[in-house]
Structures are given as C-alpha cells and as structure tokens.
C-alpha cells in the first residue's frame, strides 16, 4: 500500500498540526511507507492531492471538512482512495460516514478498512461531499471567520455568530428548481445535503445518505427570529423534521436563482449565486471501517 497524507496545519486552530505530527509518529512506528504534505493556502489541498494521486493508492486528509473536501476534489478523477483523519472543528465528514474521530482509530481504518463508494456533489467548478448552502448557515460561517482572532474560540465563537445572525436575520426571495419541480419562496436558508450532518453535528437531514444517488434539499422558509432560535437546538437530534417552515425534498439536480449570495461548500466559502449542482453517484471511494 502506498499512502500520501495532505495535512492542513491551521485546521482547528492548530489541531491539524498536532494530529499530523501524531500520525507521522504512528506511521513510523508501524513501518508504513508514506509521505506527508502540508497545505499553505486556500485550495492548496486540491493541487497537492491531485499530484499525490498519481503515485499513491490512498490519499488521506488531516484537517477540517474544508480540507477533506479539497482532497476529495483533487483525487476525484483518479483511482486513488480517500482517507479521513479528522483534525478540524466540525468534522461532519466523519459523522456522516460513521468514521472514528479518535486519531489512532481513524488511522486504523485507513490502513485496514474497506474502500467504499460514495456520491459526490458538483457545482460549476466546485466539488462537495457533505453539503452546500446559502443564507443563514453561510452568514454564521462568515461572522465566525471574520472574528477568528477574537476572544471567543470553538463552539463559543460559533454560538456568538449564531446570535449575531439571528439578530440580523434576513429572508431571500428565491426560485429553486429540483429536477423538474420549481419552487418560488422566501427563505432563510437552503442546505443541499449529501450526508445528514452540517455545522459541527447539526442533523439537518436525518435521512440523507452518501450512497443513494440523491441530495436531500432542506429549505427553511420565512420564519421569525424567536421561532428559529427555539428550533435550532432541536436540529442536533433531528427534532426540526415536520416543522411547518422546514421542507425536505430529494433531488439529483438543484438550481437556485436569487440575488447574489455567497455559497458554502463543506464549510468553505466560495463565489456568489446562482447555484447549479448535480450529484455524481458512486463517484469516489473512501476507506471505511470493515463490517463485523
């Protein structure tokens, strides 16, 4: 087996660096042939992964969901298999795929697991494995990034950003095309989910599957600040399902037309709408735990 590791040392406020050093020591102790490469800028992981995929059977990512998404994009057109060692804050790839979040256990899966096919979302020139979104969730991430050097860290920083977003809550008139169905509605946010979780454990789409050939599109309609604030905690358990302002629809193609709004893919902020995505069934392979 030939293994390359793409690590983001800045992920999780330095956790990526610590995890990478730990993994490097573990691999040396096990006498595994590997190389480790560090990202130095935004989207650098795509370039590193694409080059590594030419020579390595497995290309693993250490970092947050954005780093994993970059590595996924870099190997997508190769025969390499994606490995995942969580080293970020949200770690929704690991949650959605049922992968261990403890470092040594995650490494064990890479070295001794089974390659498993997963679906991949493609939007213009961007690839995503967990989710893409506009509206409320994107504003939370924007505010968190703008205040990353502030006194609040981790989940407290995210909670502060949620509070800010609620105080400044907006609705957006949109036209959504889901396969052949057209919906015109005022929305607070839209999540195009390939896995159940987003935002660090929020169970936006409990029934979403990474291998069923469909997105689960979660549409949050016009809702008041207080109602959204009291509903958000329920999302961790999927308790928002059935709320009259929450609609979930399965689709293979999703088009969103509205005023220019930033888009988020696997926690990574990108260019503005319009949004036009399709799912590529079984497009990538990921190392997964062996079934008992």
Structure at a glance:
The protein has helices spanning 15-29, 44-52, 65-75, 92-97, 103-112, 136-146, 154-167, 225-231; strands at residues 3-7, 34-38, 58-63, 81-86, 114-123, 126-128, 131-135, 172-178, 181-193, 215-221, 246-251, 253-257, 262-265, 268-272, 275-288. With 292 residues, it is of the alpha+beta class.
From the N-terminal CA to the C-terminal CA, the straight-line distance is 23 Å
Helix percentage range = 25-40%
Strand residue content = 25-35%
CATH architecture of the largest domain, by name, is Sandwich
Query: Would you list the SSEs in sequence order as H and E?
Result: EHEHEHEHHEEEHHEEEHEEEEE
Q: Give the helix/strand class.
A: alpha+beta
| CATH fold annotation of the largest domain | Tumour Suppressor Smad4
Report on the biggest sheet.
11 strands, antiparallel
- The stretches of 5 or more residues where confidence is low (pLDDT under 50) are none
SS summary, helix count: 8
Number of strands: 15
The number of distinct structural domains comes to: 2
| CA-atom Rg in angstroms | 19 Å
Mean pLDDT: 92
CATH class category label of the largest domain: Mainly Beta
Q: What shape does the CA trace take?
A: globular
